[in-house]
Specification:
The radius of gyration is 20 Å and the shape is globular. It has a single domain (10-192, 211-409), classed as Growth Hormone, Chain: A, CATH 1.20.1250. With 415 residues, the protein is mainly alpha-helical. It has 19 helices and no strands. Helices cover 76% and strands 0% of the residues. The longest helix has 34 residues, at 217-250.
Length: 415
């Protein structure tokens, strides 16, 4: 008789799934991390670059309604594993076949679809197993660690992409990204050796009927706040390396041994403590209040950072680090809020709506940022003046300031 696999404690399970998630994110920032190389090698405009950055999230939001909703009806790990395999295939395709704008669009779209089936289904997989182990206890800390691990994976993606591309070339960077999803599969298979918990209270509506979620005002407030958050977050992540390169060449006293990709990696690494601490603050003073304070602070920081490109480089980097903290400080609180507000039996569907509508912001952010750069430049080629960067960042700050407005208008009660 085969012995029953040893089950991990809730803390060990959270840690294992978070580590697995980090490995799954290694390919997420490879393109934006190496964006200056692609702009030069492929002669891309900023709008072209914005499309390639944004199309990743268009692929995500196209697939996420189906893939995440399915987790209410089938074991989440099936979707999780198949999507990780697609991630490996899309990164390998980029490494070996991408040679310009259109091929990059194809493979980045596939990568976005893969993220749709791994990120939120991974959280659903974790929350289902935690609920089976601990009942209806508060899962906001688990959500905080999971969502903040996204930032660690992104930081690792920036750093490793820069190191590998410098040592060899960008093809090798995407080749590495094709291997790490298999590490995620191995870790999660070890951490979750048994079957997924049996679904109870499964929805009696059809797969893409999101009306119960759309009618839930509390959940939709968080969804719209998440959309504004993602617009700012992914505009920042997509353009930060290019902005730092510009600032280093523009401002006085640029003396640093760190590359722009290493600085971007460190900024993204700050996302984990800021997201976790933001969630802890929300447990003490309330989610709505915490999210509002962080988002409005972030909007102000966006305006300051954008117009500081000709300041001393150490000041620009310091401001970018502070901005990186405010950009991610509300992430865990928003996602924990929507999970808690989900209608009974519709947690997966709620997460699908959260991801689908929310990642419209992730698609629009990088694209609109690039368009803003071009439109505000006297020559029509953005990123050549401090003013064009300033107005692009200010536009991003304006969008994120809409998040607290959505929370206030759709608020039912403190979550």
């Amino acid at each position: 008789m085969t012995p029953e696999p040893q089950k991990l404690s809730p803390t060990q399970l959270i840690a294992a799934i978070c580590v697995a998630e980090i490995f799954s994110m290694i390919g997420l920032a490879t393109f934006p991390a190496l964006l200056p190389t692609f702009i030069s090698e492929w002669r891309l405009t900023n709008t072209d670059a914005g499309w390639i950055n944004g199309i990743y999230f268009a692929g995500y939001l196209t697939a996420v309604p189906v893939l995440v909703s399915l987790t209410d009806r089938v074991p989440p790990r099936r979707i999780f594993y198949l999507s990780l395999l697609l991630s490996a295939v899309s990164s390998a395709g980029f490494a070996f076949l991408a040679n310009g704008f259109w091929t990059a669009v194809v493979f980045r779209t596939l990568s976005g679809v893969a993220l749709a089936g791994s990120y939120m289904p991974g959280l659903k997989l974790l929350s289902d197993h935690l609920k089976a182990a601990t009942g209806d206890s508060d899962q906001s800390r688990a959500v905080a660690f999971y969502t903040s691990s996204f930032g660690i994976g992104t930081a690792a993606s920036y750093y490793l992409s820069g190191v590998v591309a410098t040592e060899w070339n960008w093809h090798w960077a995407f080749g590495l990204a094709a291997l790490t999803p298999f590490v995620t599969i191995v870790i999660s298979a070890i951490a979750l050796p048994g079957k997924d918990p049996v679904h109870t209270g499964a929805p009696d509506t059809h797969l893409l009927d999101f009306r119960p979620v759309l009618r839930c005002r509390a959940a939709m407030g968080y969804v719209l706040a998440y959309t504004a958050h993602n617009f700012e977050l992914f505009a920042f992540r997509s353009w930060i390396v290019t902005y730092l390169v510009f600032a280093a060449a523009t401002g006085p006293g640029t003396t640093t041994t760190w590359s722009a990709t290493a600085i971007a990696a460190f900024i993204n690494l700050l996302g984990m403590p800021s997201s976790v601490l933001g969630n802890e603050l929300s447990r003490r003073i309330g989610r709505h209040r915490t999210i509002t304070i962080i988002m409005l602070t972030s909007a102000v920081m966006a305006c300051v950072l954008g117009f500081s490109a000709d300041w001393p480089f150490w000041a620009v980097v310091t401001l970018a680090m502070i901005y990186g903290i405010t950009v991610t400080g509300d992430s865990a609180s928003i996602t924990a809020g929507v999970v808690a507000a989900a209608p009974e039996g519709y947690r997966g569907a709620t997460m699908a709506v959260h991801s689908c509508i929310g990642f419209m912001g992730a698609f629009a952010g990088p694209l609109m940022f690039g368009i803003a750069l071009d439109l505000t430049s006297p020559s029509g080629i953005g990123g050549e003046t401090v003013a064009s960067w300033g107005w692009a960042f200010a536009f991003s700050g304006l969008i994120v300031a809409l998040g607290p407005l959505a929370l206030a208008l759709l608020r039912e009660k403190e979550a």
